[in-house]
Amino acid sequence: MCISSSEWNASRILYISGQKQKPKRSRIQVHRRKKSEEKAAWKDMELRNLKLYMENMSILEENEKLKKKANLLHQENLALMSEFQKKFSQLDRVSTTLNLLLLHKQPCQ
User: Which residues form a coiled coil (predicted)?
Assistant: First the structure.
């Protein structure tokens, strides 16, 4: 029969102190407490995981909405730029025409 060093030290201390009782080991109780703590920690971790998962899903949904909105704004921007360029080119043609008319109407010296 092998005795671990902690058991040997405990029984040696009891022998030296004059006590005849062996120390009570609460190994089972500690083990049960650890299991319950582990279960609580595991449940806490699962709850945190679930909360983070739900938060991630919410962020992904919001991201998709923002992508769609950005795409619509980009298309609107392109349409406005096209309209602006058309008006600007028309204005440029009118300006060029006016300049040509003014040059031809000036009296020659």
Answer: 56-83
